[in-house]
From TrEMBL:
Transmembrane regions listed in the UniProt entry: 25-45
Name under which the protein is recorded: CigA protein
Transferase found in the keyword field: yes
GO molecular function, one term: transferase activity
Protein origin, superkingdom: Eukaryota
Alphabetical list of Pfam families matching this protein: O-FucT (PF10250)
Keywords of the record: Carbohydrate metabolism, Fucose metabolism, Membrane, Transferase, Transmembrane, Transmembrane helix
Keyword Membrane: yes
Gene3D superfamilies per UniProt: 3.40.50.11350
Organism this protein belongs to: Glomus cerebriforme
Biological process annotations from GO: fucose metabolic process
Length: 471
């Protein structure tokens, strides 16, 4: 088996950063990145003090709404941003007592098939366009002759995959709180069918389906940071990192009578402003419950974690290298990571007896025998030992997923449920890296990377669980 890695794979977890072509916007970009970093950092801090044991099935405490009503949104951008949207949608569904219709995870290694945030109509047509070609191509084998999308011109679309969230994450706690329905397409007509909303048959454009429809309440954000939802009637916020423009009371959302609330985007960690302590606690419990649950992925990661010395016995690091400001800033990122790492490693361990062994690989077993600090790096670098050589030459016992090729075998042959022709391995890599570093004693981060932020948060969840449940 040849071990290949997909370039930019971690970037698929990252915020979709606008490509600003002009140098004079560079400072703006830095400011935006800083704000993004601090806002994700703030939300991480805010969760920490309210860590509590997950309670079994607390009942929603809001008054009931009669008849089943639905809530849904459109996914966009990369994995981690889709996860943020999902979490916000779960909160809003719970607070409005609506069944949440969950769109699938969108995944494609091709940047051309990335679906960035766009206004409602563009986003909808992008999603349905890709889906249409993908589905047409899946029929090409059956009847090649008449399908216009069967030529190799469209072969890129084969890499576009939709994955049911429940295949990867544990929804058992959430399903005790709200009703969820997974969907695997974006057609508005199919959405109406799920919600039992009548469809006018003559014209099925989005405009027509939404126009004068008493069953559907559409919330259109005029831009990515338009509406911010508030869980109390107090819309005051001294959150200086708040990017959102217009307050929207969740209590107003609850009053909507329409069968379906359809919102274009729920992007962003700051999308919901929390002031109600009960809701903050519920949200923390929900976030903690939403853990990776894919059994084979967990098996593989546990085996690697054990090989590294077990939970909390090695140090996890994330170094993002491959794109955007991270690529340009790589030297600084590496130096910063090394500074952070020095805080964890005994300064004497390297300098005295092993000065000649610097620049040499020490086997994991020897690292354990010599009681060296073991470091595991999650990275999108294709050749970590070259690209991150400064880290490898500063610390003797540094490893990456490439050092555990045999452990990964059980994941190699898994194919997507929705497309048996495509292997899932490239989708698994970043999740595997995430699981490994978050099982360490701590996570050393690349600043302003959302992947780093999520790994650090995931580490807190795992550590908290071990403390309270006494593993
Ligand atoms: C929530 O909505 C359902 C209908 O979908 C209704 O039967 C139920 O009573 C409501 N429950 C609460 C707690 O609001
Ligand atoms: C998505 O829409 C944008 C413009 O709205 C377009 O430039 C892009 O090519 C579309 N992508 C796909 C895959 O349809
Ligand atoms: C194939 O593409 C056409 C539009 O070109 C679309 O009407 C049709 O629904 C697609 N088929 C499938 C199975 O998606
Ligand atoms: C494939 O398409 C051709 C041309 O439209 C048609 O004659 C034929 O019956 C189709 N075959 C199948 C198996 O659908
Ligand atoms: C479909 O409906 C929309 C909105 O009502 C209208 O603008 C459009 O012209 C209609 N298209 C067709 C093909 O009838
Ligand atoms: C907002 O300001 C008040 C008083 O100035 C302060 O107590 C509170 O901690 C601040 N909240 C945040 C989120 O900064
Ligand atoms: C190292 O630890 C010290 C003391 O805890 C802290 O002040 C410093 O910021 C840390 N350095 C880095 C790079 O994390
Ligand atoms: C460390 O091991 C790797 C893989 O076995 C090898 O490619 C690399 O050259 C080694 N590096 C050094 C400095 O020995
Ligand atoms: C994966 O599939 C190949 C053939 O496609 C097979 O030779 C190999 O044994 C399989 N590996 C595992 C771990 O199942």
């Amino acid at each position: 088996m040849i071990f290949t890695r997909e370039a930019l794979k971690h970037s698929q977890f990252e915020a979709n950063k606008a490509k600003l072509p002009f140098k004079n916007l560079f400072i703006l970009l830095i400011i935006i990145s800083l704000i993004a970093f601090f806002s994700s950092f703030m939300s991480f801090i805010e969760l920490t003090p309210s860590l509590n044991i997950i309670k079994s099935n607390p009942k929603p405490y809001y008054t009931p709404i009669k008849e089943e009503k639905f809530f849904t949104y459109l996914p966009h951008s990369q994995f981690h941003n889709q996860l943020i949207e999902l979490k916000n949608a779960i909160v809003l569904s719970y607070l409005t007592n609506r069944t949440l219709i969950i769109p699938p995870i969108l995944h494609s290694p091709s940047s051309e098939l990335a679906v960035p945030y766009q206004p409602l109509h563009e986003l909808y047509y992008n999603l349905t366009f890709i889906e249409t070609i993908k589905k047409n191509r899946s029929l090409c084998k059956i009847n090649h002759s008449r399908k216009r999308y069967c030529s190799s011109e469209f072969s890129e679309y084969d890499s576009f995959i939709m994955i049911n969230w429940e295949e990867i994450f544990d929804f058992s706690w959430i399903k005790n709180q709200i009703k969820i329905i997974n969907r695997n397409d974006f057609s508005m007509v199919d959405l109406y069918k799920i919600c039992n909303i009548p469809i006018k048959l003559n014209n099925n454009t989005l405009e027509d389906l939404l126009q004068d429809n008493k069953n559907v309440y559409v919330i259109i954000n005029n831009h990515k940071y338009h509406y911010r939802f508030f869980d109390t009637d107090d819309t005051y916020t001294n959150d200086t990192s708040n990017k959102y423009e217009t307050p929207y009371l969740i209590s107003d959302l609850r009053k909507r009578e329409e069968k379906l609330i359809f919102i274009d985007t729920l992007f962003g960690n700051g999308r919901i402003d929390y002031k109600d302590e009960r809701i903050i606690e519920w949200k923390s419990n929900m976030h903690r419950s939403l853990k990776i649950s894919h059994p084979i992925l967990l098996d593989v990661s546990n085996n690697i974690v054990n090989e590294l010395g077990g939970f909390g016995n090695y140090l996890g690091v994330h170094v993002r290298t491959a794109d955007g400001s991270f690529k340009d800033n790589l030297e600084n990122i590496i130096d910063n990571v090394i500074e952070q790492l020095k805080n964890y490693t005994q300064t004497n361990s390297k300098t005295d007896d092993k000065s000649d062994s610097i620049n040499e690989n020490i086997s994991l077993n020897n690292c354990k025998l010599k009681n060296e600090q073991i470091i595991f790096i999650a990275t999108d670098a294709l050749e970590p030992r070259k690209k991150l050589s400064k880290i490898f030459s500063t610390f003797p016992c540094v490893f990456t997923i490439g050092d555990f090729k045999n452990f990964i075998d059980p994941l190699r042959n898994i194919t997507y449920t929705s497309d048996k022709n495509v292997k899932m391995l490239n989708f698994f890599y970043p999740l595997l890296d995430l699981l490994i570093i978050s099982n360490g004693m701590d996570v050393v981060v690349t600043h302003s990377s959302t992947f780093s932020g999520f790994a650090k948060y995931y580490h807190q969840i795992l550590a908290f669980e071990r403390d309270t449940l006494g593993f």
